[in-house]
Amino acid sequence: MLADGVVLGVLGAAAGLLVGVGAAFAGRPLMEQYVFGVRFGGYRCWPTALVLLGGVAVLAGVLAALAPAWTAARQDVSAGLSGRGTPPASRVRWLAVGLALVAGGAGLAAFGAAHISPAVILTGLILGELGLVCCTPTLIGVLAGLGRLLPLAPRIALRDASRNRAAAAPAICAVMAAVASSVALGGYLASNGARDARAYRPALPTGHLLVYPNRSAGQPTLAQVTDAARDQLGVDAVATVYAPDCAGTGYCEIAPVLPPSQVCPWQPGDRLSASHRQQARADPRCRTREADYPDGYVQPGVDDGTALPLLTGADPASTAAAAAVLRAGGVVVTDPRYLHDGLVTVRVDKMDAKPDRPATARDLPGYALPRAAGYSRLLLSTAAARQLGLDWSVSGWVVGTNTPPDEKRQARFAGALRSFGTFSLNVEHGGSPRDVSPLLLLLAAAAGLITVGAAGIATALAAAEGRAELTTLAAVGAAPAVRRLLAICQAGVIAGLGSVLGIVAGLGTAAIVLISVNRQYASAWPVPDPYPIRVPWPALGVLVLVPMVAMLGAGLFTRARLPIERRLD
User: Given pLDDT bands bounded at 50, 70 and 90, which one contains residue 252?
Assistant: First the structure.
């Protein structure tokens, strides 16, 4: 009997959704497909995957319509019209095929993850999803057999789902496909957010803010900025930030130079063998954090010790020692690697310098802050700046607050300085934003809508098929509320079972894809932070509530009165 063949309709839909997710996640489409790739919402998909997605969608629609029609055509017409149709038998071969596909797909995806093959991973994920689809009818039958231990309404709901698999199985699989896609992408987004939060390094001590002039109608004085901060932010810890520049020679680079003993033998971009990569990871000279020192950049500045505590959050003892070095004409760094024998080598590279005027470098007395927040910085004293042939000018102001000011206070502070022009405010909140991704909520909402719709349609079909049973219940004196309770249980079977299968499939998909991406990037140097495996709890919370919403809707829109009809057998 081909009743179980109805799952082919949603089998194609599940495969299509998984193709889209897999193509968006797999490392190669994200990183390398630049010529023929098509961008959707920031993700890249293989062109072949897009073609396959369209073809599978067309096939899904055709099979979803043909399979139930073929099944209905093979049934006895008089038995169907009189409501004496028999439940389809659970075919062992469908269960065997489903389990084989699940096991084979999981093994194939794991093999692809170990060998960093997106195509193999994608094939394995599709096969695993198809296996779950094939197992769904048998799973419905097993649950129906366990229904004898339940009260009347859930027992009838499970029996109806087993008897009417032509309606229940496609609905459950549609819910599973939608939930699996939402959970898989949600798992990636949650892992990406956790990775960003782990890699985040503050630019300033928490609560402090930098004020940069955009367009100046007149430079405010330090006293005027301090007055605005006191009035609008309730603080008066303000210091001027000075930036060095090469007067009359255009742009120049000012940076400290690592002593030879501190230079990592392997530089970014080097193609390292596995043994050299292992040595580089173990070498303390190569353990710099990319977020701390992107491309080796160090933020230069000129200071006499006034702005130093607000920029770095250094403790009073370190601040006093650093200020003494600055007053003596030295320099201060926040990365101790640059300090050697009490000196810091500072290099000035003038971009438009002539060949007869090469870059200059000087060894200057230095001090390394033991603990400092914010970017890696090089603070020059005025005397050191003059030795290097540099000038300096006001680049902004740093304001120290105990807690990050909200947007209204920031706007009032900027408004108090508006007579001097427009200003940008950079506030340090002490961590990367952990807001829930709008895309994640959108996907969860879409999956929830599909779940509610599929449960509603399946519940309505079950109600139509079970009208005779409802008449019998009315004849034997069942309470009117039984009809509403039965609808609630029928919606719960469809939405609940589909959501559980989808969550399992989605979490497995996300885990395999993330493991593959981590293995792919593990061969690079420097090795980037791996993606942690994270559960998308916001999406799961929405999806757990969706079956309850479907059940509530079924209860609200179902009439409680049992039908009373005359039956003709």
Answer: confident
Res. 342: pLDDT tops 90: yes
* Average pLDDT score, the chain: 74
Report the candidate in 93, 95, 133, 153 with the shortest Cα–Cα distance to residue 554. 153
Q: How many residues are listed for the chain in this entry?
A: 569
Residue 296 DSSP code: G
Residue 214 parent element (H or E)? strand 209-216
Which residues have C-beta within 8 Å of that of residue 274, sequence separation ≥ 6?
Answer: none
DSSP state of 345: E
Q: Which pTM was predicted?
A: 0.70
List the one residue out of 422, 20, 409, 411 whose CA is nearest residue 182: 20
Strand-pairing partners, residue 180, are none
Burial of 180: CB neighbours in 10 Å, binned 0-12, 13-18, 19+: buried
Instruction: Show the DSSP H helices in 36-146 as ranges.
Output: 47-73, 77-82, 92-114, 118-146
Identify residue 501 by its one-letter amino acid code.
Answer: L
Q: How far is CA 567 from CA 30, 80, 230, 465, in A?
A: 62, 15, 85, 14
DSSP string, 492-524: HHHHHHHHHHHHHHHHHHHHHHHHHHHHHHTTS
Residue 532 has phi, psi (to 5 degrees) of -75, 150
Residue 413 three-state SS: helix
Between 40-44, 374-378, 489-493, the lowest mean confidence (pLDDT) is in 40-44
Contact 427, 209 (CB under 8 A): yes
Report the 10 Å Cβ neighbour count for 191: 23
Which residue from 184, 164, 179, 141 is spatially nearest to 13, judged by alpha carbons?
Answer: 179
How far is it, in rounded angstroms, from Cα 263 to Cα 286? 8
Digit-coded pLDDT (tens) for 127-140: 777 777 777 777 88
Q: Which of 385, 397, 223 is nearest to 300 (CA)?
A: 385
Report d(CA 518, CA 516) in Å as an integer. Answer: 5
Separation between Cα atoms, residue 335 and residue 337, nearest integer Å: 6
For residue 90, the SS3 value is: coil
* CA atoms of 462 and 178, how far apart (whole Å): 22
Q: Is the Cβ–Cβ distance between 239 and 398 less than 8 Å?
A: yes
With contact defined as beta carbons under 8 Å apart, do 346 and 247 qualify? Answer: no
Higher pLDDT among residues 247 and 99, named by residue: 99
Neighbour tally for 504: CB within 10 Å = 15
Q: How far apart are CA 87 and CA 263, in angstroms?
A: 75
